Amino acid sequence: MPVEFELCPGRRIGGSNPCFIIAEIGQNHQGDVEVAKKMIRMAKDCGADCVKFQKSELEYRFTKCALERAYNSPHSWGNTYGAHKRHLEFSREQYRELQKFSREVGIFFTASGMDEMAVEFLHEINVPFIKVASADTNNIPYLEKTAKKGRPMVISSGMQSMETMRCVYQTVRQHNPNFTFLQCTSAYPLPTEHVNLRIITEFQQEFPDIPIGYSGHEAGISVSVAAVALGAKVVERHVTLDKTWKGSDHAASLEPPSELAAPWYDQIRTVELALGSPVKQMLPCEASCHSKVRNYTTVVKPVLPLYPT
Q1: 56: number of Cβ within 10 Å
Q2: Which residue, among 181, 126, 134, 114, has the nearest Cα to 153 in the 3D structure?
Q3: Which of 174-183, 262-271, 295-304 has the highest mean pLDDT?
Q4: Would you say 208 and 3 are in contact if contact means Cβ atoms under 8 Å apart?
Q5: Over the stretch 138-188, which tens digit does the pLDDT of each residue have?
Q6: How confident is the model at residue 256 (pLDDT cuts 50, 70, 90)?
Q7: Strands, E, within the chain: which ranges?
Q8: 56: region left, alpha or beta (phi > 0 left; psi from -120 to 50 alpha)
Q9: Would you say 76 and 84 are in contact if contact means Cβ atoms under 8 Å apart?
Q10: Which strand (E) or helix (H) includes residue 200?
Q11: Is the pLDDT of residue 308 over 70?
Q12: Is residue 217 classed as helix, strand or coil in its secondary structure?
């Protein structure tokens, strides 16, 4: 299996390829296609490689009882859970519209397939890769069906153990060689002490033949930049136009201009550049300093040879 592969047309991940940046819009669009378009353009302007939504087929994913239950959360968009979810769920035609808009803007477009029917639809509209949400990572029948589609997969690891991730690895690799794991902790917002970036290196050792990335829900950008320094080849962050909007994901999202702006993208690229080469040697940029040190070194007493003659 490859340590690197093509995640999107013309865009490879892993190896020496640049970190792939996913702007997770999710359902932070408030159920409004025009807001979603503004967020797509914002993500492009901020340097993201891809925007990602969350697609569900509600009647397939939830029981009638679940959809009809009362839903009184401060974040609710309706009196029942079904009314709430229907407000936030874009239709298939709206997905095609957003996909077309993303293409015009010049950014890749995909979504998490939140159920098997959603995966079928995403496959139908030819998204470049399928995102597997943490909630579905231990759903083995779902993973098998998704892997058999043959599209690259980006798999989050929130709420899972290393034993589960080994099982996921074995399940997916039987059908699909092109997938990546993202270290993720499913808390919104995520306390810094529970980020556990060291799991990135654990994943790299446990699964050396796939790229490893990071999906973060913490405040700010420094942790995500540190993930790249540890070798993350994909970084996914939720984005929003306003942290104060209704919805539980907004508080865990990056907001322009202070958090989500070109400097975030630039910091990731700077870290990648600074990682450089693992070969220790004198570099051309050191020549001037070396010359000065050599010219001003004075021997004040005889230097014994290293080996006796």
Answers
A1: 21
A2: 181
A3: 174-183
A4: yes
A5: 999 999 999 999 999 999 999 999 999 999 999 999 999 999 999 999 999
A6: confident
A7: 5-8, 11-13, 20-26, 50-55, 108-113, 130-132, 153-156, 179-183, 212-216, 234-238
A8: beta
A9: yes
A10: helix 198-206
A11: no
A12: coil
CB-based contact 190:251 (threshold 8 Å): no
> Read out DSSP for 138-178?
T-HHHHHHHHTT---EEEE-TT--HHHHHHHHHHHHTT-S-
Burial 219-242 (b: 16+ CB within 10 A, else e): bebebbbebbebbbbbbbbbbbbe
Count the neighbouring beta carbons within 10 Å of the beta carbon of residue 250.
Answer: 22
Q: What are phi and psi of 147, to 5 degrees?
A: -60, -35
Q: 271 or 290: whose pLDDT is higher?
A: 271
Q: Do residues 156 and 182 make contact, with C-beta atoms less than 8 angstroms apart?
A: yes
Is residue 114 a contact partner of residue 90, using CB atoms and an 8 Å limit? no
For residues 206 and 166, the answer to whether their CB atoms sit within 8 Å is yes
Question: For residues 135 and 149, what is the distance between their CA atoms, to the nearest angstrom?
Answer: 20
Q: Are 189 and 251 in contact (CB under 8 A)?
A: yes
Cα–chain center distance at 206: 20
Q: Is the pLDDT of residue 124 over 70?
A: yes
In angstroms, the Cα distances linking 125 to 40, 120, 162, 197, 217 are 18, 9, 33, 34, 28
Q: CB of 216 within 8 A of CB of 227?
A: yes
Question: Taking Cα atoms as reference points, which of 256, 252, 200 lies closest to residue 226?
Answer: 200
